[in-house]
Specification:
The chain is built from 19 helices and 23 strands. It is α+β, with helices and mostly antiparallel strands.
């Protein structure tokens, strides 16, 4: 036994402590994936240092050169040397500081990790008089010397991954790496509109935005006025969570080109579930496949979110994930409700506030009742002056508001009104139905008969009482009566055909799918002449809807032409 023990002790050890250089390069693999990662870490440090202006230069997509300069507080020589030591940071002191951290980053590995895989220069000054320059090559400090510069810090990273050729080989093309760096800086510029940002790539300026007083001004500078003008403000608080930002009007949502940004406690993160919850707020307002642009800022107590679950702080973990998603959905839903979410006409990007329409039409707008739109008796006269209404092309209804001209699409508007009315009936006792003097006898294909059987209760709640007769024939005893021109037989046939075909499948649930299908077929059509009382009631009912500016397909129900745009077109502006 002893001999065997002795021979085992003589074996070569399999466990070894890594050298500092190898450990630094492993740490670099966690933090530095590509040049954009270096830009992110250095710019976040500059923001945490109180910078008011940040300049970024890259060459060859950042493979050759990355330089980040700021006017932040800078560092003394001792702090500058410590900043390049692993696990050194100015942002936390003990484990308790990891909860609710309020800075962009706190990993002590960032600077030494970057320095371990590049030719690294750090210049810094805390007062604009005495400064320090530190040069590091592949993790080895080459020089520490005096420097003259204004207060702030400049970090220059050359030849990224020069000493790890296997990792350098996996970098993408110059254009791809440049685009990734620009996306990183764009996100940080959105998070901090009070700071000026500039990005130059191979002497070409890609981003140059001054400090902005309002977030929408920063969006104009980064996303362009055309896209920014399609956004409406989001502002909602529930319990400890506040959601702010911007959501795109449903009419401008498209299948491709969507921009989706989420920030938690000021930090940009990746969270597809938050974006999915926000898109749920568009339920019954956009066409299947459309993806609206969104930028959302979530603010909640630090102990309600864990930001230390990803090496680059790109993901977070919420203590109550379902609550957060519910509040985000409600925030977007509320943002789409006011008439300010209606599509504007013109190039000025102006939109009308809800007050423009409501003030003109008066506060005595009747609340929705079980009696459907276009009642046979006229409406009682309003207690306040109503704007004159004009139907043009037997399709559009025009009226003046305080801020300009509103144009309503009568079919889309009635579709929205009917959809919300049908949803109330489906969730309640059902709509009043009209018993037919002569019952309808209709024939349906076998799949359509199956759809009638599957949706029998929903059909009854919207007003259709259907009884099988024989074979493929059914008898319809009652029908809804949403307007005088309603064709009960045609609507039922189209409705059943759509239900059998499984259309509107992207809407949230079966009731919403059914309500959307019915509203589409039951609404007044373009080209139908309306009586003045009907146009007035349609507009009134539209303005009392929950989401008045959009129909169930994503089309606008109302378009607003600001007075300023009219004056500009006539040379008065």
């Amino acid at each position: 036994m002893g001999a065997r023990l002795g021979s085992g002790a003589a074996l070569t050890a399999k466990i070894a402590v890594l050298s500092q250089q190898v450990a630094d390069q492993i740490a670099a693999g966690e933090v530095v994936e590509r040049p954009a990662s270096v830009v992110k870490e250095l710019v976040e440090n500059a923001l945490d240092a109180g910078a008011r202006a940040i300049r970024v230069e890259i060459e060859n997509g950042g493979k050759t050169l990355i330089r980040v300069s700021d006017d932040g507080e800078g560092m003394s020589r001792g702090d500058a040397e410590l900043a390049l030591a692993r696990h050194a940071t100015s942002k936390i002191r003990d484990a308790a500081d990891l909860i609710g951290v309020g800075t962009f980053g706190f990993r002590g590995e960032a600077l030494p990790a970057i320095a371990s895989v590049s030719r690294f220069d750090l210049e810094t000054s805390p007062d604009g008089r005495s400064g320090t320059r530190i040069r590091v090559v592949g993790g080895k400090c080459e020089a520490v010397e005096d420097a003259v510069r204004q207060h702030g810090t400049t970090v220059t990273v050359r030849a990224l991954f020069f000493n790890t050729p296997a990792r350098r080989k996996f970098l993408r093309a110059q254009a791809t790496e440049t685009r990734a760096a620009a996306e990183v800086l764009t996100l940080l510029a959105l998070a901090r509109p009070d700071v000026a940002f500039r990005l130059a790539s191979d002497d070409r300026v890609l981003i140059d935005v001054p400090p902005a007083e309002q977030a929408i001004d920063r969006l104009h500078g980064l996303w362009g006025r055309e896209l920014a003008s399609t956004l409406v403000a989001v502002a909602h608080r529930e319990g400890p969570l506040e959601v702010r930002g911007f959501a795109q009007r449903p009419a401008q949502a498209k299948p491709a080109g969507r921009r989706g940004c989420v920030f938690v406690r000021g930090r940009p993160i990746r969270d597809p579930f938050i974006l999915r919850a926000a898109e749920a707020g568009y339920r019954s307002t956009i066409a299947p496949g459309d993806r609206p642009s969104l930028i959302l800022f979530l603010d909640l107590p630090g102990d309600a979110v864990d930001v230390n679950v990803h090496p680059a702080k790109l993901e977070v973990r919420f203590r109550d994930k379902f609550f957060v998603e519910k509040v985000v959905e409600e925030a977007v839903r509320r943002a789409l409700g006011p008439l300010a979410a209606a599509a504007p006409l013109g190039t000025g990007g102006e939109v009308l506030g809800a007050s423009g329409v409501w003030t003109e039409l008066g506060a005595a707008i009747p609340a929705a009742t079980t009696q459907e739109l276009f009642r046979t008796e006229p409406l009682a006269p309003s207690t306040q002056r109503l704007a004159p209404l004009l139907q043009v092309f037997d399709t559009y209804i025009l009226f003046q508001t305080d801020s300009g001209l509103a144009i309503v699409d009568q079919h889309s508007a009635h579709e929205r009104v009917l959809y919300e009315s049908v949803m109330r009936h489906l969730q309640g006792d059902g709509a009043p139905a009209q018993r037919l003097l002569l019952p309808l006898t209709l024939e349906f294909a076998p799949p359509e008969l199956e759809a009638i059987a599957a949706h029998g209760e929903a059909l009854r709640r919207v007003g259709y009482e259907i009884e099988p007769l024989s074979g493929r024939t059914v008898v319809v005893h009652t029908a809804p009566n949403p307007h005088p021109r309603f064709d009960a037989a045609r609507c039922l046939q189209e409705l059943v055909a759509d239900l059998a075909g499984g259309r509107f499948g992207a809407l949230a649930n079966r009731l919403e799918r059914f309500a959307a299908t019915f509203a589409c077929h039951a609404a007044v059509k373009a080209g139908q002449r309306l009586e003045p009382e009907e146009t007035r009631e349609l507009v009134m009912r539209l303005l009392t809807a929950t989401l008045p500016a959009h129909d169930v397909h994503g089309r606008p129900t109302i378009v607003q032409l600001p007075r300023g745009e009219l004056e500009r077109r006539f040379g008065r502006g």
